Amino acid sequence: MKKIITLAVIAISILFKSSQACTVISCALKGEVFAAANEDDYMGFARMWFNPKTAERYGSVCFGLPDLQAQAAMNEYGLFYDFTAQNIDPAKYHPKNIYKGDLFFEILGKCKTVKEALVYLEKYDYAISSQVLIADALGNSIIINAGTKLPKSGYYQINTNFDISAVKTKNYSCRRYDISEEILKEAKTINVPFFRDILNRTRQEGKLSTIYSNIYDLKRGIITIYHFHDFEHPYVIDLKKELAKGYRLEKISDHFPASFAYEQFLMSDKPMYRKEMMLDEIKQKGLRRTINRYFDLGKKMTKDSTINGTLLEVGIQLVKDGYNKHAQGGIWEYWFAMPGGFKIENFNDERINAAAEIFDYLGTEKGIDFKLKNFIYELSAYVRLIQGNQTQAKEYYAIAAASSTDAWPISFARSKKMLAVL
């Protein structure tokens, strides 16, 4: 069961990481207002999800990896944000008033401009290790990290992977920043081809690779997407038209021609690849038919732990996907141990029911060590809460929280906290 343990430990240790590297730009010139970004990471399978307007939230689209944290997003009013990875420790700035959930997703749903977003960022301390660029359709932008807020002073602003406060002293080293600035300084007009050239020249290849590249026309609400270094096949989104179709969660790659290079990149992470192939099978052949086939395979191949490992990862992903729809595009806050995630919620979703069956199946498997077994009990407990079965949820949480030495720390802590709520 080593393979399952590795997968699960990786999954529960990703606590609000932004994508690795990345290049983010905002620019307003001669009445045109754009943002653009390369999203770089070690894994593919990127998603986008459309979140229609509600009585409480503006409509938006988000882009991110399978954990469904929004790496980048734009709402119907042209408010945009995107993160770059940093090594800034927010703890040294002693944040006190921290938002209980995903602060930037809240901003996306409630704000139209950078000015309105800054009201939230005055009220709540910035407690994220990454650095964000926020831009709006009026041409304003600002780059923020735990120690710095730097408004745009000229017609463009660039966010890469150094503390933006170093721009004033030129005490930084980043070729992606320099290449972007060299092009932007000479700009006479700006449009999609202009930013496509910048993104093409600042993309990354190799293990850390540019997964997708987006160009945002903030005034018109038009987004042009390129996938995995392919700048010949754009996919164009008219946000207002797409939001009118309702909520959707999609793989970005589904909108592009097949690419051997991308397929080879994906296969370098075999556990993730197996999980995504099972999810594709679910999409093509149906949820019930697919998980039953894997249950049968698991029973026939008792010595092959990869099947159970794939089932576990798929079960977790089904909960993330189901919760994303329930939360109108928000992340599964409980998974990331956010304070707002420890509330009792009930909703109907076939993916949650399928995940419950997967966790029950794995919970009866022999040869699983105590820590993994208790992690599975914790997941079973949570989905029982969603299904409205508090009695069984409490029983499973009690098992998962029985011994700190027989549980992974985050799983144990979540179980104890949920027991207190129950």
Summed up, the helix count is 14
Radius of gyration: 22 Å
In the sheet with the most strands, the strands line up as 9-8-7-6-5-4-3-14
- The topology string of helices and strands comes to HEEEEEEHHEEEEHHEEEHEHHHHHHHH
Strand content: 15-25%
Describe the largest sheet. Answer: 8 strands, antiparallel
The count of strands amounts to 14
Shape: globular
Round the mean pLDDT to the nearest integer and report it.
92
Sequence stretches where pLDDT stays below 50 over 5 or more residues: 1-19
N-to-C terminal Cα separation, in Å? 32 Å
> Which structural category do the helix and sheet elements fall into?
alpha+beta
Instruction: Provide the helix percentage.
Output: 40-55%
What does this structure look like?
This protein has 422 residues and is α+β, with helices and mostly antiparallel strands. It contains 14 helices and 14 strands. The chain has helices at residues 2-13, 103-110, 114-123, 175-185, 192-202, 239-243, 260-267, 270-285, 287-300, 305-326, 350-363, 370-387, 390-400, 409-421; strands spanning 23-29, 32-41, 47-51, 60-64, 72-75, 80-84, 131-135, 141-144, 149-151, 156-159, 209-217, 222-227, 230-238, 248-251. The strands form two sheets. An eight-stranded antiparallel sheet has the order 9-8-7-6-5-4-3-14. It has a six-stranded antiparallel sheet with strand order 10-1-2-11-12-13. Helix 1 packs parallel to helix 10, helix 9 (287-300) packs parallel to helix 11 (350-363) and helix 12 packs antiparallel against helix 13 (390-400).
Task: Record keyword descriptors for this entry.
422 residues; alpha+beta; 8-stranded antiparallel sheet; 14 helices; 14 strands; 41% helix; disordered N terminus
